[in-house]
Amino acid sequence: MQFPIQRLLSRATWLKVHLYLALIAGFFFALMGLTGSLSVYREELDELLNPKLVIEQPESKRQSLDKIMAAVHAAHPNRYGSWTLELPRSSHGMITVWYDKPRETFFELYAPLMVSVNPYTGEVVASRFWGQTATTWLLDLHSQLRLDRFGWNAVGIFGGLLMVSIGTGVYLWWPGWRGILSALKIRHNAGMIRFAFDLHRLIGLLSASILLLLAFTGFNLSYPSVLETLVGSSGMEHGETGRNIISTATPNNHPVGLESAEFVARGPFPRAELRRVTTPAGDSGIYRINLRQGSEVNQRHPYTTVWVDRWSGQVKEVRDPSAFTQGETFATWIWPMHTGEAFGATARFVWFLSGIGLFVLYVSGLLHWLHRRGKVKDREIDVAALRPLLYRLQEVGCRAGLALFKLTVLLLQKAKLHAPQVMKGCTTLLQRLHSMLNRQKRLGKNDWE
Fold it and tell me: CATH: 3.10.450, 2.60.40, 3.40.50, 1.10.3470. Which one for 51-132?
């Protein structure tokens, strides 16, 4: 006799859950995967599409922030209020000056004005609105399906559903310890459908851990209050600027300039890197200086913040991530883990491949389902013509596996997890993968004969 809970947890049940999730939400999973992969290299793509944003021969010294802000005001004299200057991360990049709520896009969820300024000459090179460039349009499609708040919430729900889909997929893949090696094989001589299904299972396995991390962080970016409740933090949402601090000094004829405010802000953090400066709005406005300390994982949006009064030149408040609680520190990791910037260039590339892999999972799974319903006929694969591609795919797969395991070890080290047995197991797997890759190189193309 089978109890209801046993029927609920049967393989057939999870197969239906996995199938229905793919049929209902699979297209959106694939869409978020593709747009997310491209958004990993958003800045690089933007510069590729707009060569004028790249400084070919950078000079030794940039213009002062006050001169740069004066150039922006001259180009946009009728825009009042606060601006935010974002410093470039390379000597070849532009300073981006942000104006949060321009009248042209005032009623959109997020569509600031982006003014690109040459930091060495003070020249305003471009003025563009968020969502009206190719890369920001793609990022909006990825984060909110171009549907404003409704789309933002929907993407969060899709992130939760993707976690379920990944979990059921790994459960359905698991062949038992004795069947692992055979489950990793790609049978290219068994027809197109068998090849697509084997590819589906292999890519799903290789990308499962990364996709699970991306789905988890994406869900929390859409619903930050959930994480804040769980870890006991507040005000740690991505883009959160901290408390609303106002000036209490008497306005005078000698306000503090941007360069002076930066100099004052560096007092508590002399070795930190300047990332952003937000100008005051109105007589009660105050400078907000964002710096990045070497220990912070956030590259573009660090949490180290100093508020400087523009009338008195005094530091009003300081936010230091080293004093955060464990819950607050964990919350600071959500955005850089989602973008991959927390783990360097290798992780960003692995993130890029994982997003592409999500699209391949959808296409290969859909092809297999259509075949079972008689909508697509199977056909043989011309192995001779595809042999170079298959060999290359196998080599790339081995390298991707190596990168994934190295990244797993790095994650364990960064999280300071004391798990020597896991570390030893990862090392053993790395050694085996190295051996497999070296053997494959020696065999060369004969392996496909």
Answer: 3.10.450
